[in-house]
Design goal:
Distance between the termini: 38 Å
Strand content: 15-25%
CATH class: Alpha Beta
Radius of gyration: 17 Å
Oligomer: single chain
């Protein structure tokens, strides 16, 4: 398939998307429903357009994923902890691997200002080059410094990260909503992006109103969708929260209307 055909597996006829990342199993200790990804997919699939997965889950859940967009995570990354030097993002898989899996997209981290920034930039460029060769679009997850650094998620930092990802050649950019940001703040990020932007969910908030409000603001600002993982699969009602998110993204529902689905 061409890049545009592959992207259509994620982006609905309204050019919006609800993506569920379930690639955390190689990054952080997990429990609960993610230990059974096939059961999770069965619960939420009617509300989700595509998934971000690691190679092993893509293989193990091939049948369950057969009707959805599949985005292969091409890199590894680990939160730092005492005594462990932070290596940032390090590439693991190639366009050839994604093509062999039948993946419709690839995703790689893009960390600005990280000590391994130059290596990361080269690896992102290589993924983009291979994506062109295989007709597989690339989603760069662009963040200032690293994951879990909300104090660095300013409007200026995120706007530059998103533009850099687009300048490198990303087909779509996944990024964080700026801490305490307004609709106009995120709109300035979208306007600088050149390509579609999807907003990530980050750590489970434990607050349905806060999650849906953030997503509604992002969509009102012009985002092309969401890539929300932990706030779905760590929720007590994964299918219900996925339905609420779908209502905002695809139907333009209000926060209040979407909360009723929970």
């Amino acid at each position: 398939m061409s890049k545009s055909e592959n992207l259509s597996q994620f982006f609905n006829v309204d050019s919006k998307t609800v993506i569920l990342p379930i690639d955390h199993g190689s990054v952080i200790p997990i429990d609960g429903i993610l230990c059974k990804p096939m059961e999770l997919i069965e619960q939420v699939d009617r509300y989700v357009d595509g998934y971000v997965v690691n190679y092993g889950v893509a293989e193990a859940c091939r049948d369950a994923l057969s009707s959805s967009g599949v985005c292969l995570r091409t890199d590894g990354y680990k939160p730092s902890y005492p005594g462990n030097e932070d290596d940032g993002s390090y590439r693991l898989y190639t366009g050839k691997d994604a093509d062999a899996l039948g993946a419709h997209a690839m995703m790689n981290m893009l960390y600005l200002h990280h000590r391994r920034e130059s290596d990361n930039f080269r690896e992102c460029a290589a993924v983009i080059s291979e994506g062109r060769d295989y007709g597989i679009p690339v989603i760069l997850e662009a963040l200032p410094f690293n994951i879990g650094r909300p104090e660095e998620y300013t409007v200026e930092n995120i706007r530059f990260a998103v533009r850099l990802a687009a300048e490198l050649g990303a087909d779509v950019v996944k990024t964080a909503y700026p801490t305490n940001g307004t609709v106009d703040d995120f709109k300035s990020i979208i306007e600088a992006a050149l390509v579609p932007v999807v907003v990530l969910g980050g750590a489970a908030m434990g607050d349905d109103t806060a999650l849906l409000t953030m997503v509604k603001k992002a969509m009102d600002a012009g985002a092309s969708g969401i890539a929300v993982g932990r706030n779905v699969w760590q929720h007590a009602k994964p299918a219900a929260v996925a339905a609420a998110l779908q209502a905002i993204v695809h139907d333009g529902s209000s926060v209040g209307t979407s909360l009723n689905l929970l």
